[in-house]
Structure formats: C-alpha cells, structure tokens
Amino acid sequence: MKTYRCNLRRVRLVILVCQVGLILMTEAQIPERCIGHETYRPPGNSDITVYCGTEYMDLSIFLCPVYQALYDESQMAINKQFNKPECFGTADWTVDPPVLKFRFPSSPISFCNNDIKIYNQAESLFSDFSNIQFINISGSVTSVDPSAGMITYRPQILYKFSCVYPMQYLLNSTKLGISGVNLAIQDNNGSFISTLSMQLYKDARYQEMLFIPKTGLYPKTKIYVAVKAANLIDRFNVLLDRCYATTSPYAIHSTYYDLFVGCNRDAQTKVEINGESQEAHFHFETFRFVEHKNQQISTFYLHCVTRLCEVSSCHRLLPS
User: Fold this and answer.
1) N or C, where is the chain less crowded by C-beta within 10 Å?
2) What is the CA radius of gyration of the chain?
3) Does residue 248 have a cis bond before it (omega within 30 degrees)?
C-alpha cells in the first residue's frame, strides 16, 4: 500500500511537469515581430481595414492581437469556412505592423458564404431613374478554438466587414470618330464596372469586331453595340437605361445626343436585347455633330448608363 502511494505521487509530478512544459512552449511561439510591439494586445475593433475595390475586396487584420489571444493565422477564416483553403488569409510579416490579408472578388458572387443583400435607394448619382438598386456584401473573419474540451481560456475573435456597391454605372468612354473609333472602357466608379464591357461590331450577329480605318466611317454606317457582364451568377441581368453620344470624353458639361432613354429613342436606333440576359444589344447609324461642320472628322464618345438587375425584378425596371 505504501508503494502504491509513492507511485501515484510520481505520476502526478510527471503530469504537472508536462503541463508547465506546454505553457512554456506556447509562450515561446510568440513571433519575434510581435514581442514588444504596440499591437501585441487584446484584439480591438480598429484592427481590421476593409478596401472595397473595383475587382476585389481586400481585408487587412493586425496579426499580433491574434497571437496575443493564443491563435495564429491558420485558425482564422472567413465565415467559419475552415474546410475551404481559399477562405484563409495570408500572413504578411514584411509590413509594420504585421497583418493577415484576405482577398476575394467584389463581384456579386457569394464567396466563402458571404451574405449578399440587395436594396433600393431613391437618391443617387442617377436620380433621373427610379428604383436604383444597391448591393451589400458582408461577412466576418472568425477564429476556431483548437481546444476540444467543454471550456476554453481563449477569447472568441470576430471581425465583421461590409461593402456597399451601386448596381448602376456610367459605362464610357468609347470614342467614335466619323471617321475613327477606339475602344476605351474606363474603370471609374469603384464598383462592379470592372465586370462590364462595351464592344462594337459590324454585323447583326455580333460576331465580327468593328475595326475602323484611319479615314473613318461614312455617315449612316450601322454600328452594333454589345454591353456584357462577366463573372456574375445567373441572379443578375444587364439593363441599359440610357445610351448617348457626347462631343467630349466627359459625359457632363458636353454637347450630347440621346440614342435612347428608356422607351424614347432616336429613329435610327433599335434596342434588340435589354434586361433579358447578361448581355444587352442595340444598334444605331453613325452621324456627324453639326458643330463639327468645319472639321474633316466628327469625333464623338459613346456612353451607356448601365445597371445590374435581379432577374426577378428586371421586368419592373424596363420602360413600358
């Protein structure tokens, strides 16, 4: 009996030594860049920076607070999607302070189970048109606790992010010279405009690209225009509210001529597909601005006010 008690004490001593060893190992795993750094503190709301880009959403989270809470970059993921490698971030120790970076597409496609909500807002840059829609993409970066027990001594880390994008844009400036045309789509709205493109064709099947000689086009030449969306789920279609020509690259404070606004259109303009798919088609005949009467070439710029509409609501936005 006496021998049994002695062995029991030895077992307890071994367990205690192992526990102390684990604590010391955990402390030793603090990255050198975080030791003594001002951000080596408990996580806070100011630790995350969100950039709502034209093509990507970028998240940047201070890394040292993550380690202070006894986690590391492998235990942080978007919306608890820990079984998807693309939902994890990348540690950047080359910057000060060190950060954990996430990047994913800002197009309206659910990434890592992000939440997508669409709502209407009456006032916007395009207040001439009603029912302007906006899309909100939101989610969170959360920690996973490696402890499998009933309790834990680690705090839960939760960083929330959100970006709001308009669903209507001014797609410009395609330069047309009668004679002369050059395609130049500007990424100018900080929104989904990067998923939209405008292309010119010379045939009704929209297959032959339009290339203009230096001598230009003759008046009344038919130009076929396609506005397309890329990298979208089937939830959205492309709808053109207005397409018009201006005498300068700038849509504001410039002489303009409307090809169509809603159901009102120029006699030589025909809208073929609009709000029915992820492409919109129309064609018009080339013309000259009268103010260019003393110029050999009449140059103008094509603009289209374009929106992405939910398939279920596109018919309500079409002009009657």
Assistant:
1) N
2) 29
3) no
